[in-house]
Please model this.
Amino acid sequence: MAAQVETHMKNVFKDGVSLLAQQEMSKLQDTCLYEPLEGEKKFWDYYGSASFIERTGRNQANTPQELARSRRMISKQSYEYTELFDPRDRSRLLKALEPDSQFVRAVIAGAMRKKDDIIIAAFDGTAYSGKDGTTSVAFDNGNTPSHDITITYDEADSASTTETPLTIGKLRRSRALLEGKDVDESMPWFCVAHPNAKHALLRSAEVTSADYNSVRALVDGQVNSFLGLDYRWSTRIANNDTNDRYVYVYRKDAVVFGMDGDIRVEIDELPEKGHAIQLAVYIDMAATRAEETKIVRINTNEAA
Model:
């Protein structure tokens, strides 16, 4: 006999997934600006700096100017997780539908990891600009090379070709690069890195000593705040070479993340699959780099 899933059980499962999705956030979503997405694409415009001209005489004619404008596009992508339950295993199915079940938590954890993957890909991936969003903007855009710097600096802040792990010198240099582009601190600044980079920083006296850092990192093995940066440690950052891995320092509005509505859950009986019960979870989301001037990429070598 097929295992029927009562309507109220379907609703309980959907509510449980939605609730956990709100409570158990990704590590990186709050480091970005959030934009609700509607439709396949969304555009927004940025304006450059306004320069005031001195008036030197009475009844002087005005000098019209036009602010520089740029457009950025975010394009929604759809993702899903689907699982089939044998209709004869009613107890396993109903246990999975419990709102606090390990199954629900595992599904939500997968959705949160996908969010972080999308955000990380946007840090230095191709962004799209132009009136219709067809102009690609690479991280190492030749028109703005000073915006797209991969830096390798030693502890003395000297430029070096020697590969090194994440150092205080690299973080100081990253701040200097952002401040040199007038990136102020009216919004939070973040550093996103792999936990291996944290282990490298924990070898630095400046991070672990109370003389430098009011948050004594060696007490609990954590580095959460240093040099005015909020640190997020993510294993989702992949190697970009054998032993090399990027670290990203940026202001919150450097990256935009968006979703179209909430996570959607559907539960259906499939006669063509022997009346198996299908649980499907859908999420529509996207991220893009919004402004090249507000993000710096650091190269680190974990074998050093």
